[in-house]
Amino acid sequence: MIPPIVCISLADAEQRRAFMAGQLEKLGLPYRFLDAIRPDLSQGWPASYQRKQRLARHGHDLTQGEIGCFLSHRQAWQEFLAGSDPFLCVLEDDVELQPDFAEGLKALCAHAGEWDIVRLYGVFRRESAKLAELMPGRWLVDYFDQPRGTQGYVLNRVAAERLLQHTEKMSCAIDDAIDRGWEHKLRLYGVEPYLVVEQLQHASTIGSRKRARLPLWRRLVRELHRGIGDLRKQRWVMGKRVRYAFLRK
C-alpha cells in the first residue's frame, strides 16, 4: 500500500513543482500539490496567533513564511481527515526522494500499528533507538530529541486529529509544535537512513530563521518562560532513555 502523497508548494513555485513532479512521476507515484498559504500580515496577525506567548518564550515573532508553513500543514491534515484514507504522506517541495522511497512507504504501512507519525527526514542528527527493521538497511527509530523539520513525514488519522487540536493556537513553528511529544503523546518516530534529503540549493520559501540578537532583558524573560517547558521536555527524554536502557537488558 502507498499512502496518498501531498506536496506543499507555493502556487507560483514552478521550478520547485517541476522538480518534485519529475521525481514522483519517475517512481510512478500518484500525488497532488497543495497550494501553500502565503499570509498577508499587513491585514493583521492570524486569529490563532498567540503573540504575547510567542514573544515571552522566543523574544521575536514568527515570520510570514513560518506562519504560512504552519497554516499549510494544518490544511493538509484537515483535507486528509475529510477523506477516508488511513495514512497521508506530506512532502515539502525542496526534497530529493531516495531510490527506494516507494518501498519505504510500503514498509511503513506494513508496520502501521507501531507508529502515529513518522519523520522521513530530520534537519539535525540525533541519537535514536531502533524499534523495527522496516526493510533491509532501513529502520523505524525513536529519537531521544527530535531532529526538527517538516520536509517529509507520514501520519495516520489519529495523529492528524490530535495535531490539529494541538496546533489550534499558534506560538511556535510547525516543526516545533510537532516535536512536542510530551504534550500531544503521539508515537512520533523516524526512518533511518532518511527516505528524503533536503535540497540545499533551493532557498527556503519560509525565509531565514536567524534573528537579530535580543537585548539582555528580553533574553532573561525568554529563558524564564522556557524553563518550565524545558523541564517537561527533559523528563520526557529521560523517561525514554531509562525505558530503552531497561529494554536492552
Automatic annotation (TrEMBL):
GO terms for biological process: lipopolysaccharide biosynthetic process. The keyword Transferase applies. Transmembrane segments: none annotated. Keywords: Lipopolysaccharide biosynthesis, Transferase. It comes from the Bacteria. InterPro entries: Glyco_trans_25. Residues 4-177 form the Glycosyl transferase family domain. It holds the Pfam family Glyco_transf_25. GO terms for molecular function: transferase activity. The keyword Transferase applies. Pathway: Bacterial outer membrane biogenesis; lipooligosaccharide biosynthesis; Glycan metabolism; lacto-N-neotetraose biosynthesis. This is Glycosyl transferase, family 25. It comes from Formivibrio citricus.
